[in-house]
Each structure stands twice: as C-alpha cells, then as structure tokens.
Automatic annotation (TrEMBL):
Domain Peptidase M13 N-terminal: 68-447
The species this protein was found in: Hymenobacter elongatus
The protein, known as: M13 family peptidase
Domain Peptidase M13 C-terminal stretches: 499-698
Pfam families assigned: Peptidase_M13, Peptidase_M13_N
Gene3D superfamilies reported in the protein's UniProt record: Collagenase (Catalytic Domain), Neutral endopeptidase , domain2
Length: 703
C-alpha cells in the first residue's frame, strides 16, 4: 500500500503535472503589470559593465515592465508566461511539464525500440516492457476485444448472493485497484517503523474530493452533473437501456454521497495520530462485522495478520452499516461502475471518450493527450523500474549522482546550522532535531536494488489483461511484505519521474533522475542557479521532516512526540502565521488558498529556500561575487527559484487544485516564501512599502 504520507514536491494530474497557475490576488495578478519603481529597477537592471553570459537562466523570460519588489512571480517569468500558452492537450504548462516532455521523448524512444523487438526472451524485463507498450498502442486489438477481458470480473460481481459474497469482491477489488468502498493494503507501521502492517483507509469515491458531493455551489453542481452523465453513458455502452443506465447513475451517486458524508476532510487526514487506530482482527470483526475482516484478509493472502490499522473509524462504522442496509443489487451496480471506471483508460475508445468528456468539465482540458504519451505513463506505472533501468543508462550519469549528493550534504550542513542557531527552540528539542537530520537516508537517481518482475505475466494479446495483471502483481508485491523486515532500498517513484519526496516512516529524502536536469539542476550553471533550483528542492524535502506533519516522526520514523511542550507551542504559533498568510491568497475571484491544507508544503517551501540560500552563501565564501547576465549571485538564486514554478493553468484545473491539492498554486509558491525573506528584499533593493515586503512583525520564520 503506497504510503499516504509521502510528501512530494509537486502533484500529478491526469492531463499532466498540475503545479501552478496564473493567479490573481495580493500580490497583484500574474495577468496584470505594474510600472517598475525606480529603486527596484535600479537594483535589478544590469549596470554598465561587461556582461558575463550565464547558463541556466534565460533573462529574456523576465518581464521588465513589472517591479521585482511588486510581484516577483510575474517579474521573473512574465515573458515566459506570455509566450508559452497551455497546449490544447494539457491543463497546465510550466517548467515541470517542459522537463516531463523532454524525459518523455527519451522514454518514448526506449519503448518504441522495446515494442519493435520481438526477439526478447520470454519472461525478461525487455519482453515485458516491449509487450506491455505494444499492447497499449494496439488500438485495433483493444477495439476488437471490447470489454471481453472484463467479463470474468463482471461475472464475479453478478454472482454475489449475500453479504459474504459482497465482502469477497470487496477484497478482490483491493487487488485489482478498483477502489471500492475503502482502500486496504500493507504499509509501514507508523508507530513501529521496523514492521509492516495491514492498513485500511477511507475511499470509495470517484469524484476527486468529498466536497464535490456535498457542496451546492454552481461549480460543484456542474461537476456532479458531468459525473452523472459519465456514469449514465458508460452503462449505456455496456448495453443498458437509457432508463436503467440513468437509474444506475442515481444509485451510485446516492451510495457515494453517503460515503462522502462519512469521510474526513483532507485537512483532517493530515493528522497522523488521529488517523492511526490499531486494533486486533478480532476487534475489527466485532466493531465492523459487515466488512468481514477474515474474508477481506483471506482474499488478499493476509490471513496471518493479527492486527489492522484503521485510519478513520467513523467512516468504517458508516460503511459497516451501509453494507448491510443498502440493497445488494445497488452494491452490485456500484461495484460494476468502480471496476469499469478504474480501467476506462485501457478500454475501447468509446469508454475513453466518456471519461475524457467528464475530465473536461473537471479540469478544463481541451484535447486528449496523444495515445503514446498516455500509454507511456501507463507503462511507467506498471513496469517503471524495468524500463527505468534503460532510461538511467541513457539519461543519467554517475557524475550527476555525485554532484547531487554533494549538494545534499551542503544543504544538510546549512540546515544543521539553522537548527543550532534557532533562538526559539530549547537545547533538548534541538538535539532531537539534529539527530533526525543526521539520520536522513538520501536516495538519488535510481534504486540500488531493482524490483523483480518475474512473477508478472505480460503478453501482446490484451492491454486490459496486462493492466489487471500489473495491478494484481503490485498489490501482491506489497501484501507479501507482511511479517518480513522493512525493505529500506525500495523507492516510491520511478527513475524518470520529475518530482521528489520525503517519506516520514522511512525518514528518507528521494530525488529521482528525472528531476536532476535543467531547469532544476544544470552542471554547467553557476552555483546561484543550482542552489535556487535543485538546492531549494532538496531543502524543501529536508524541511518536510520538520513541517507540521513530519515533525511528529522521530529519527527512526516513528510517530513519537520528541518536542518539549513549550517548543511545540512555539512551532505551532509560527506555523499558524504561514497558514494565515496563505489563507489570504486568492488565485481566482473568491477562491482562497486553504492555509491548513497547504501548510506542510508552504512550510517546506519557506524552510527549503531559506536553507538553500544559506548553503549558497557558504559556497560563495571567499569567492568574488561576479555578476552573470548582469545579476548578482543572490538575484540569480531567486530568479532560478521563480523559474521552477513558472506555470500557466486552466481556471478549472486551478479551482480543483485549490480544493484538493496540498501544494499551493505556483504564484504563491514563488511570492509567498519571498515575502518573508529579508535576503530577498536586500537582493533586489526592496523598500519597506513594496508589495513583496511584509511588515517585520508579520513575517514568518521557523528554520
């Protein structure tokens, strides 16, 4: 079971990476410009001296009509934002997307070559990668097969005669990724990080968030209507009459709305203690008899489990009631929908089209991504480490790994200095914090031990069957960990991924090869650019270990309170100030950023950038501070940071991001931290009354 507490740099959406948006708020809108003040312009404009040309920053992207001290996001990237409209097949477009596309071109070549090679020995990774991608690209075979590969699963649902039969299918749906009613699997025990445990979490919804079922605003209603249409049309494709299809949609909405009402909000899910409720299997069966714990566990080969961690007891209490009270025929309708909708992307074009029509309302997507790009992502999900090995050979050098490791060590040293010099923290808490920092496991580029796919069967015959096989393999891979030692070599992302993460129970920071490239990291760029780019990313992930969630885990990855009461209160007060700042940001009309939902990411951005700045200063010590492209190292550092987050986003996708994503929109990931940093004010000569300058009493500083 993928750890729900992986804290990632950015979030991924169906139509690409959704990371930011052209926003309108205080600071001023990204779509408006203000005349540059003379003082700010003087600080940022190159002086009349020989210009040293640099690498890693394109100064043509800068919008000189905006003062850096008024809106740095717009100043640093305004021309880029204007000259890079969102492609029709994307819901957002920014630095992450550009690098994702660059990586995809390399991956596509690998997959095309693998698919063309029919000589690979059966059972090898080469055969599996080639056949999976070939089957995914064979749209004619997919059309010809129709939903035939799903008939055995549909027959299992039709055969349900009682609650015991329902429990059996709920267990099976955990294996095939149908997401029916709840999520269940094996993951690290957060209070005993040396062991794996069976875990159960709320789920069972197809809309992206519980609020979409419960809110009555026009936007939520439109999304619900689009979802009902999607369900209705999909059942019609499966052969139901219009009347039956419409009735089925109403049934599914009723069941999912009831589950949504019992679900915790995303903010409430951020409390690791409140979402950790361990009980024996006997207790689980006693409290929720209609879930059928023994049956669920047996279906997943987990009968040896003696205990289960239940995330949200109130949700499971309601699910337990519903499983007995709601008609069995309604549950069978619900299960058919969750099975088919979870596999829509692997089905004939008519099913894919209905799914896309719904996503257009949700995200504002104009055009479906090309098939090769969608199937590349599918192959990465199914066999990411198998073809990730080939990707690493083509696109990542040992030198890059060594340089990245050196940057990590430099950031670590800077963070240690910040902890030691922290005026509000006691010596006892500092000692624990340093112990945790020094215990970080650092993973760079790719795994030391690759996953073994020998038990996974892949052929060219059926893409849909390959997807089912891959899902069952992945579930069994995780479930087989129960009772075994923790595998600390395992990765939660594939090598080509343009992202990074911190995993609290492992106390590890992970940087895939995919992100260790321009604009994040460029071996030919000056230190200022690399520290503002990948340095801020590294600092971000490190700070996650000490944000409002991460700080609750100790050096060994266990949920344990290692803070003095006074220090915890001081941290909470300082973090609350960041929350208040972000609550005030409005990316669209009356839509506010949720400071509580985005708290961890905002703290990581502020802390990471602050630490990266210190690390840069240490690297510059004793060296001449040469201007490059007319900018000082400090200015280039902040420009490089802003470059990462440049991003245009469709309004629909931006609304969804604000509601569901723990990451703030891009403009505020840029301007938000900088408004608290005197280092930024000094670099660009910002006056106290500038829009980017918060009053000293209102500035947030934690690390």
């Amino acid at each position: 079971m993928k750890n729900r507490n992986h804290l990632t740099l950015a979030s991924v959406a169906v139509a690409g990476l959704t990371l930011a948006g052209c926003a309108t708020s205080n600071p001023p809108a990204a779509t408006t410009t203000a005349p540059a003040t003379s003082t700010a312009t003087a600080a940022a404009t190159p002086a009349a001296e020989p210009v040293v040309k640099g690498v890693g920053l394109n100064v043509a992207n800068i919008d000189q009509t905006v003062a850096p001290c008024d809106n740095f996001f717009q100043y640093a990237s305004g021309n880029w934002l204007k000259n890079n409209p969102i492609p029709a097949s994307e819901v957002s477009w920014g630095s992450f997307n550009e690098l994702f596309d660059k990586n995809s071109a390399v991956q596509r070549q690998i997959l095309d070559e693998a698919a063309a090679d029919r000589t690979a020995a059966k059972g090898t990774n080469a055969q599996k990668v080639g056949d999976f991608y070939a089957s995914a690209m064979d749209s004619m075979a997919i059309e010809k097969a129709g939903i035939a590969p799903l008939k055995p699963e549909l027959a299992r649902i039709d055969a349900i005669k009682d609650v015991k039969g329902l429990q059996t299918i709920l267990g099976r749906h955990q294996l095939i990724g149908a997401g029916s009613v709840f999520n269940m699997g094996v993951g690290q025990d957060e209070k005993n990080s040396t062991q794996y445990a069976v875990q159960m979490q709320q789920g069972g919804l197809r809309l992206p968030d519980r609020d979409y079922y419960l809110k009555d605003d026009a936007r939520s209603k439109a999304i619900r209507n689009a979802y009902v249409t999607y369900i209705t049309n999909t059942f019609a494709l499966m052969g139901e009459t219009p009347a039956v299809a419409a009735k089925n949609a109403a049934t599914i909405m009723r069941l999912e709305t009831r589950l949504a009402k019992a679900s915790k909000s995303r903010v409430d899910l951020r409390d690791p203690y409140a979402n950790y409720n361990k009980m024996t299997v006997v207790e689980l069966q006693k409290q929720y008899p209609n879930l059928g714990a023994p049956t669920l566990l047996a279906q997943q080969s987990l009968s040896s489990a003696k205990s289960v961690i239940v995330g949200q007891p109130a949700f499971f209490k309601e699910a337990n009631t519903m499983l007995k009270a709601e008609p069995l025929s309604d549950w069978k309708t619900y299960l058919r929908w969750h099975l088919v909708s979870s596999l829509a992307s692997a089905m004939p074009k008519a099913y894919v089209d209905e799914s896309f029509k719904y996503s257009q309302t949700l995200t504002g997507a104009k055009k479906m991504q090309p098939r090769w790009k969608r199937m590349l992502r599918s192959t990465d999900g199914a066999l990411g480490e198998a073809f990730g090995q080939v990707y690493v050979d083509k696109a990542f050098t040992p030198e890059s790994k060594q340089k990245a490791l050196q940057l990590v060590n430099n950031l670590k040293a800077a963070f240690a200095e910040h902890i030691q010099g922290n005026a509000w923290m006691s010596a006892a808490t500092k000692a624990e914090a340093l112990k945790k920092l020094n215990a970080f496991t650092v993973k760079i580029g790719y795994p030391d031990k690759w996953k073994d796919y020998s038990a996974l069967t892949i052929t060219r015959d059926s893409y849909l069957q390959n997807v089912l096989n891959a899902r069952m393999w992945a579930a069994n891979f995780d479930n087989n960990k129960l009772g075994k030692p923790i595998d600390r070599t395992e990765w939660g992302m594939t090598p080509p991924t343009v992202n990074a993460y911190y995993n609290p129970p492992m106390n590890e920071i992970v940087f895939p090869a995919g992100i260790l490239q321009p604009p994040f990291y460029d071996p030919n760029a000056d230190d200022a650019v690399n520290y503002g780019g990948i340095g801020a990313v590294i600092g971000h992930e490190m700070t996650h270990g000490f944000d409002d969630q991460g700080r609750q885990y100790d050096s060994e990855g266990n949920l344990r309170d290692w803070w003095t009461k006074e220090d915890a209160e001081k941290f909470t007060q300082r973090a609350a100030l960041v929350g208040t700042q972000f609550d005030a940001f409005t990316p669209l009309d009356s839509v506010h950023v949720n400071g509580k939902l985005t708290m961890g990411e905002n703290l990581a951005d502020l802390g990471g950038l602050t630490i990266a700045y210190t690390a840069l200063q240490k690297s510059l010590a004793g060296k001449p501070k040469t201007k490059v492209d007319g900018f000082t190292p400090e200015q280039r550092f902040f420009l490089a940071y802003a470059q990462i987050w440049r991003n245009n986003m469709r309004p629909e996708a931006l609304r969804q991001q604000v509601l569901t994503d723990p990451h703030s929109p891009a403009q505020f990931r840029t301007n938000g931290p900088l408004q608290n940093m005197p280092q930024f004010f000094e670099a660009f000569g910002c006056k106290e009354d500038a829009k980017m300058v918060r009053a000293e009493a209102q500035r947030a500083k934690i690390w």
